[in-house]
Amino acid sequence: MEDKIFEEFEVLKISREDGAYTLQEVCKPVIAEISLKIYINGMEMVSMLCLNRQQEELAVGFLYSEGVINSFDDIEEVCYNERAMAVMVRLKEGISVKRQESLRSITAGCGKCYTYINPLKRSQFKKAESAGRFSLEDIMGRMRDFAGQSELFREIGGVHSLLFYTPGYSVFSEDIGRHNCFDKVTGTLLKEGKMALAEDGIVFISGRVTSEIMTKVIRLGAPVIVSKSTPSTAAVKLANQYNITLLGYARSDTGYVYSGADRLMEATPCRAEKVAI
């Protein structure tokens, strides 16, 4: 089941030859998705559409992003049940999930579309305090490398990707949902005991940065996120509020800094008049 990442379909390929459109029968791989359930202490908490990879990491990262756990030590046991397509999580004594937090369905695209941080969980979301400086030259170079890193996207398409980077350690993930990519990376950091690296890490993401993605950045504690696409207004406001350096439309040698420019080295501010984009 682990290898069922795509299926092949007989389709008609549209082409244009000599001024006319033609339809040619071809075999086209299409990305597959599963409906993954997460059970907490025997109770179904959530059902999400995702790529059939890194199921345990996805579940662990999701529970951390949601504020259910604060470390991997809060989990007594976690395992993936392939037949049930479910991750079974048993929390340690004293760690619980409130009933109102359970039985939600998360789509592959826009997720829960949060535009705020739950006031009940606010204490778990802290401003990025990293005093580190980051080379803009290095960021843009790594973004160029990251843009072509997903073999799955090149061969099949239909997936997002995310890279967590620090010197000497990095985690890369792919999924049909941007938020799933993020939770898989967070879950990997938790399982490998590398969460302390987050405070000096950079997150590179292939899709747009919504408020939901930004809340995950804040919860993780990473001070910098770089996207080849756009942020939403809510994401920009959260980035400013929580001291996150946010870069958007980072492609080739261009892009925009929406917040936290003081962390960037080798960048000379231009004093010219503002230009409407």
Automatic annotation (TrEMBL):
Name recorded for this polypeptide: Sulfur carrier protein FdhD
Q: Which Pfam families match?
A: FdhD-NarQ
PANTHER family from the UniProt entry: FORMATE DEHYDROGENASE, SULFUR CARRIER PROTEIN FDHD
Q: Which family does it belong to?
A: Belongs to the FdhD family.
Name its GO BP terms in alphabetical order: Mo-molybdopterin cofactor biosynthetic process
- One GO CC annotation: cytoplasm
Cytoplasm is among the record's keywords: yes
Source organism: Sporobacter termitidis DSM 10068
List UniProt keywords, sorted A-Z.
Cytoplasm, Molybdenum cofactor biosynthesis
Indicate the principal place this protein occupies in or around the cell.
cytoplasm
Q: What GO molecular function annotations does the UniProt record carry, in alphabetical order?
A: sulfur carrier activity; sulfurtransferase activity
The entry's function note states: Required for formate dehydrogenase (FDH) activity. Acts as a sulfur carrier protein that transfers sulfur from IscS to the molybdenum cofactor prior to its insertion into FDH.
Localization:
Cytoplasm
The active site lies at 110 (cysteine persulfide intermediate)
* UniProt KW Cytoplasm keyword: yes
